[in-house]
Amino acid sequence: MNKAPEHTDPVQREITRRTIVSFTIFFICIASGIYLFSRLYSEPQSADKVQPTLRKVLVANEKLFSLFYSKTRLAKTFKKSDVAIKARVNGGVGMEGTLDTVIWRLKVVRNPGDTLILTLNDLKALPKTEVVFDFKCVEGWSQVTYWGGVRFSDFLKKYNLVAQSCKHYVGMTTPDGTYYVGNDMPSMLQPQTLLCYELNGKPLPQNQGYPLRLIIPVKYGIKHLKRIGTMFFSNEKPADYWAEKGYDYYSGL
Question: Is the pTM here over 0.85, yes or no?
């Protein structure tokens, strides 16, 4: 007498089906990832040393950040007792050798052929603002630091740079021109952004950008130009040292 065929348990059949589907999707994702990575890696780099596809993603991220940015949003502040004893240095490009304020001047290019020349004492005559915040570096470290200087928005008002503040970007370079950054104007007008001449209540050390540096708490450290020599305003993105080496131009937090 023939035996009746055994029927597979429906639950077991469903488990088997889902397992097969899951592994199939997994291997498709792995294969797709390898394919896309190889295509991306083989793309010729553009002048800023980034594959065009990656640069498009960075630009899209910048537009998204800009949509939700508000200059009234403040970076988290801390007590002075939280400040690190020794401020870490995040690079020294553009600061070779020492610089004396006897010869240093801040050059503010209002328009082509129209440059405002200022001394450190001119800046110190403006109301002083302090900020204690968590300085963040793209290398992955952060540190609570304490800075003092003149609020950038106050600086613009003092020197009647209202028309310039309507531009989209602010460019800054070191006196020797070897280090340069571009920052969007909304971030520069954020009330914690400083033209900074003090660290921990004392004049900036040479390795921290003496006599004047930028502190812009809504950006990573690569945007905080040390040893400012020249400042200018533009509706086009100014050249940016690290963006040319493949980093995100916006570099916002």
Answer: no
